[in-house]
Amino acid sequence: MKKEKSAIVLFVKDEAHDIMAWLSWHISLGFDKIFVYDDHSTDGTYEIAKSCEGIYNVEVCRTSMLEGNFYYRQRDSYFDAIKKSIDHYEWIAMLDGDEYVSIDGTQDINGFLDKFSKDDTGIALSWCIYGSSSRVLKDKVPTYQVFNHRSTPELNDNTLVKSFVRPEAVSFVYENPHKFNLSYGNYADAAGQPVEWRPGATKNILWEGARINHYICRSMEHFIDRIKRRLGSDLSNSTVYWSHFDRNDVYDPQDQARINAANTVYNTIKKSVFQYSMKNFLEKGNALENTENSLTPHRKVDVFHLKSIHGEYLSLNNIDGHLFQGEGFERILAAIPYDSNKIWLFRNPFVYSSNVRFHISHSAQSNYCYEFEFASNESDNSIFIKSPKTQKYLTCIPVNHGGNVEFSREEASDWEKFYFGEKVSELTFVGDNEGPASDLIYYMLNSAGSFPYEEFLLKSATLESNDRMNLKSLLGPQIMSII
Question: Which domains, and CATH codes, for the chain?
Answer without folding.
Answer: 4-254 (3.90.550), 268-481 (2.80.10.50)
